[in-house]
Amino acid sequence: MLQCRSYDRCSTIDVRYPATWMHDLQYNDTITTVSGYLSMNILSGKHIILGVAGSIAAYKIAELARNLTLEDALVDVILTKAAEHFVGQATFQALTGRPVLTDMWALPEDGVVGHVALGIHADAVAIAPATANTLARIAAGICDDLLTTTVLATQAPILCAPAMNPQMYAAAATQKNIATLRQRGFTILEPAVGRMAEPMVGKGRLPEPDVLEGEIRALLGRRSGPLRERQVVVTAGGTREPIDPVRYVGNRSSGQMGYLLAALARDYGARVKLISGPTALTPPPAVTVIPVETTIQMRDAVLAACVDADILIMNAAVADFRPAHALVSKIKKSGESGLILELVQNPDILGELKEHHKLFKVGFAAETDDLIANAKGKLARKNLQMIVANDAVASIGQPDIQVTLINADGEITALPRQSKSQAAAAVLMAIAQRFNERAC
């Protein structure tokens, strides 16, 4: 069954400065308002070929085709003859609004020989599910149907998502064909582990449509995104400092903004490492996730990830203090009326990177008062290139957010209150623009 999908579209925005912020701005500050921060949708206008081979998993591709179409991609579906035993042409035609392609001799030529036209004009090709037979034929260079001809003719990046019986996937011949395709530059998405159509559990399931979409976004971004060939580190979520085995000192951070920024950086073409404290969120596909719990663990992960990184987006709500001694046994109630915890200061992660001059560092400041003044002070102390400031009280647990961007040169940009996905798009666009200006 197809599920409804909600997504944000940014429209032209008329920015107003909130009256409660005006007293924070100094007379000589450089202030910029923004009208029309539009998110860069990497899928918009892209011509994507979905090749569907003969597997029971083919039904999942109907949702993928629909979602890509909703994101303004031009989606052409190629069904192999075997695929038509599992899914019908009418389904894909209804979801994409375009005719389904099966016969390489029935294509309009459009000035190009018909059976290679699709491959020549494609921005990306995704073969999902990719059966053992399809992988073998492509690896051997066979082009006796529309799908294999399109693959051989295209210069576009190609994603293959194998789906088959676990024993077929593990077979030496299949693994050799996969290795051959990787050597030729194909992106191969490892199958998921789970229950198969037959009564068997193993590695061979087609990943879910959102994972496939994320991989396609990454594929397109690495080819044309504004952060392609860059390494981006994003931190997200809150840290937890243990009091005893069952209790901790923490905060209310959901991690949502950091996860959105990581997904957008992937769409922009970056290789993304997401260093995340505990959250209830599903990590974005095509992103390397490094889970941590404490501030010290996050510090160690960030310092290691930033050795070869270009950009650090420090969005995590890191605990400033931790219990001096974490007990090995659960604290029990006693006859005393209270409990005294001794807290010690945690490491300053951004502070330890202060002298890392090649790294473009972006911090976040969630403040309860004197928003601009406190954010500017943090930007200067930690030698940041940009800081994103927001009112902590007005943002915690809310679906939308209002942020102000402050650059190292003193420029202040106030964004309107909007959904967190819209705010994340505006923030990352500003980061990419500043980074590329600095790199030139």
What do these coordinates show?
With 440 residues, this protein is α/β, with parallel strands linked by helices. The protein has two domains: 19-39 and 227-328 and 344-439, Rossmann fold (3-Layer(aba) Sandwich), CATH 3.40.50.10300; 47-218, Flavin prenyltransferase-like (Rossmann fold). The chain is 31% helix and 22% strand. It is built from 14 helices and 22 strands. It has a nine-stranded mixed beta sheet with strand order 1-21-20-18-17-14-9-12-13, with helices on both faces. It has a five-stranded parallel beta sheet with strand order 3-2-4-5-6, sandwiched between helices. The radius of gyration is 25 Å and the shape is globular. The model is unreliable at 1-38 (pLDDT under 50).
For the sheet with most strands, the description reads: 9 strands, mixed
Query: Ranges with pLDDT <50 over ≥5 residues?
Result: 1-38
According to CATH, the homologous superfamily of the largest domain is CoaB-like
Radius of gyration over all CA atoms, rounded: 25 Å
CATH first level of the largest domain: which class?
A: Alpha Beta
Shape: globular
Q: How many beta-strand elements?
A: 22
Q: How are the strands of the biggest sheet laid out side by side?
A: 1-21-20-18-17-14-9-12-13
Strand content: 15-25%
What's the overall average pLDDT, rounded? 87
Q: Which structural class do the helices and strands define?
A: alpha/beta
